[in-house]
Every structure is written in structure tokens, then in C-alpha cells.
Amino acid sequence: MRVSYKDAPRYLCDRKFKNMVDRICLSVSAAAVEEVVVQAFFEAIRPAQLDALEAVLVAQEKERRELFRHWDEKLKRAQYGVQLAERQYSLVDPENRLVAGELEKRWENALIALKEIQEGYRRFETAHYPVTLPTELKEQFRRISESLPELWQSGQLDNAQKKDLLRSLVAKVIVDRVKSDTLELRVVWISGHYTKLEVNPPIHRTRDLGEYEELAERLQVLWKEGLTEQEIAEQVSREGYRSARSKNVSAATVRDIRLQYLKQHPEELNLKTMRLGNYLPVQELAVREGFKVDWVYRQIANKRIKPEYLKKHPRRHSYLIQDNAELIAQLRQYWQRKEDWLAKRNSQI
Fold first, then answer.
1. Domain of life, per the record (predicted)?
2. Which of 138, 149, 199, 349 could join 183 in a cystine, given CB atoms 3.0 to 4.6 angstroms apart?
């Protein structure tokens, strides 16, 4: 699927370099693709990789010379076929119309075949086919292979220079979305070979993660073991899980996933065991009053539920809210205002 090049890595996709990225998916994070391509480039310019590339290019040049010989022989055979068909046609008795017609047809077919071979030969001759790395360029790569990553990030290279460096080894980049949160990259080198890589770009929703169900189950296990949301976030991040827009899992993401999980598995919600005196867990208050759980958390974040009405559970470290009549009445008013506003807006649509 082709898309606007504004969605592709900025070093790879200016107007003079359009062909570098082929089949890039919609909503692809340019930064995620760029980072992986650049790291692959850094790996490719190491001395051992350059030696391997040089050997491949030398072998390809030998193959190209063999193909030239093949095309020469094929062209000569086609030219001889045209000459033979022309002589046969010129020698036939014009009175013998049946034979003359058949020989004329053979001559026309030979001319068509010759034209096709000539066009194919011309395309082969003009096709881009890197012979070898220039010695000067190869020596430059050897000298900067260790320092280039730091130089790349220093701001001393502009985008045009970075683009030229990438183009010296990279022919194009092919990007396919294989999962909602996974891209498959093929970095095609000038040798014709390619490196296959996977990228996990930022996505919009955590629930679209490929391992979302597994992550949700893991969070519940750790929660039952008594870990706090922050401790759970750190643990699952170490285990290799990620959130929608980050390589790590935050405490807020843990809370959101747990709330979504509890909606789908209400049997897991044992609220009474979390009460402390007249302090209720957020979920119990929300269920009792008909509020949405995330809305209650927003009231805490916005300080509408003041700190004096809040307490942290000593083991779970989750919020508990005082069952205070005045506070509950205020929350009901806030909730009703929101509902009235939504109803008014919907009536105007």
C-alpha cells in the first residue's frame, strides 16, 4: 500500500529519494522505522560487513558479465533468424501465394521477436547495477564506523548528508504491517540482499497490543501477590511487555488494563476485602453510585476529591475514598452535570 511520504522516515523520503521506501503502511511511525533502518546501516558499515558486501558485489559483477554474453548470443540468434526469414521470403515464387504468405508471416514474427530482445537487452544495459564500492568510500566507512553513531546524534550532519550516507548502501526499505502493533521491515541493500527486521511502533490503543490478553492476565497475578501498580509496571517492563506508545509499561497503564480486565471478569473483583472502616475502594463507590470508574479517578486527579477524603490501601496501595455524605453528594452533582451536558449535546446533533 503506497501512502504519502510524509509518513515515512525523513532521511529516506525526500522528493529525490522517493523509491527508497516501498509499500509502507498507513499510520506508520516514521521515527520507529527510521531508528531501526539507521541502526541496521550502522551495523552494515562495520569492516567485516563491508568485506562481505564487497565479495557479493564482485560475484554479482561476474554474473553480470555472463548475462551480457547471454544477451549477445540471444541477439545474434534473433538477427540471424530475421535474415534467414527475409532470404526465404525473397526467394519464393510470388505465384505460390500460400507459401509466400506463410514465409511472410515467419519474417514478421522474427522481426517482432528481435524487437522484444533488443528492448530487453536495452533495459538490462541501463539497469542500475552497482559494480563495487569505491575504494575511497570504503576507507571512509572503515574510519567512521565507530564514531558515526555519535556523530549522527550530534547535529553536525544535516538531513541531506544523512540521506546520502544511507543511499550509499541502502537501495530501499519495504515495510509491511503484520500485526496491529508489529511492522516487518526489509532493508534492501545495494547488493540486492536484504535484512529482515521487526519494529513495534507506537499505536493508539493498549488493547490493540498483540500480547494484550497475556499482559492483562500477568497483571492480575502480580496484583494478587500484593505488588503496587508501580511495582507491577516495573516488573512487566523487565519481562519485555510494553504499552501502546512506549517501550515500557507505566503505572497508569497498569491501572487502565486492570479496570478493563475487571469489567470483563467481575468475579475477580472482591471489593469488600479492600474496605478500611468507612473508606471504600474506587470500584465499589463507582458501582454503588452508578459512576464510571475512570471518571472517579479523574475527579481524584483534578482534586475535586480532596486529599483529606483519600487514603491508600496499605497492601494494594490503591486509592480508598471516604464514604462521606457531603462528598458523595458533591460527586453526584458533578456526575449529573456531565450527564445533562451530554444529553444536551446529543439532542443538538
1. Bacteria
2. 199
